[in-house]
Amino acid sequence: MTSEKIALVIGAGDATGGAIAKRFAREGFITCVTRRNVDKLAPLVAEIQAEGGRAVAFGSDARREDAVIDLVETIERDIGPIEVFVYNVGANSPMSILDETVRRYTKIWELACLGGFLTGREVAKRMVTRGRGTMLFTGATASLRGRANFAAFAGGKHGLKALAESMARELWPQNIHVGHVIVDGAIDTAFIRENFPARYAQKSEDGILNPTHIAENYWHLHCQPRDSWSFEIDLRPWMEKW
Fold first, then answer.
1. Residue-wise pLDDT tens digits, 95-123
2. How far is CA 129 from CA 84, 132, 206, in A?
3. What are phi and psi of 31, to 5 degrees?
4. In this structure, is the dihedral angle defined by the CA atoms of residues 95, 98, 102 and 106, taken in order, positive or negative?
5. 117-162 pLDDT per residue, tens
6. For the chain, which residues make up each domain, given as ranges?
7. What is the rounded CA–CA span in Å between residue 24 and residue 21?
8. Which CATH architecture has domain 6-232?
9. Fewest beta carbons within 10 Å, which of 28, 61, 85, 149?
């Protein structure tokens, strides 16, 4: 095992998660990035490497305890100590409560909350032994309020916030900075561009969130001195109603 610093990003998608990985890679971290489909990580890894950074891709399902344990053990054993952990798995899928099913509700909760517990627990075990680390969880508007047709997502995101808050109160005294980032608003993604063109048009007015700017806040949280740690920050465009 090397002495390199590792940033583990669970859910390194094409927008926020990928931007966070690139931000930490620019600071010399080896970024370990995960998605359920490892092939989808190839462009992100190539981009990080083209910019002189280092990245390692893993195909892993954050909902499976055995997969999570193996992932964290492999990274710690073969690559280096995890200094920064980010849980950024999305699960935003609307459905009327009248049509919601147990299977769908459970899957969304597993993605939004259970995966955060499983991955967070395994990383925390290692960080506690070293007496340092940063753990950041990505929240959403649903972390604060349950909108119509988003009962499952709101339940999962409320749960994730509660998990992060409980972990912060337990782990801050052990020099582990646990934080929760609420991303409130549309993000500059292909999904928004293709499905909500009117909303995407607000990009020219800074009306949707830029993933690069979101990532900058994760780096800022990691760099905060411990006499001024933040638990929760919220990010939204200036024109967003809240």
1. 999 999 999 999 999 999 999 999 999 99
2. 15, 8, 43
3. -95, 115
4. positive
5. 999 999 999 999 999 999 999 999 999 999 999 999 999 999 999 9
6. 6-232
7. 5
8. 3-Layer(aba) Sandwich (3.40)
9. 28
**Residue located via tokens 């899928």:** 93
Q: Which residues are within 8 A (CB) of 45 and not within 5 positions of it... i.e. 6 or more apart?
A: 33, 55, 56, 57
Of the candidates 168, 161, 171, the one whose C-alpha atom is nearest the C-alpha of residue 140 is 161
Q: How many CA atoms lie within 13 A of 143 on its CB side?
A: 23
How far apart CA 126 and CA 43 sit, in angstroms, is 30
Q: How far apart are CA 216 and CA 38, in angstroms?
A: 25
HSE of 117 in the Cβ direction (CA atoms, 13 Å)?
17
DSSP string, 57-101: EEE--TT-HHHHHHHHHHHHHHT--EEEEEE---------TTT--
DSSP 8-29: EEES--TTHHHHHHHHHHTTTP
**pLDDT the model gives residue 2:** 53
Calpha distance 68→240 (Å, rounded): 36
Q: For the chain, which ranges sit under pLDDT 70? A: 1-3
Contact criterion met (CB below 8 Å) for 67 and 120: no
Instruction: Give the CB-side neighbour count of residue 184, counting CA atoms within 13 A.
Output: 21
233: buried, middle or exposed (CB in 10 Å: 19+, 13-18, 0-12)?
middle
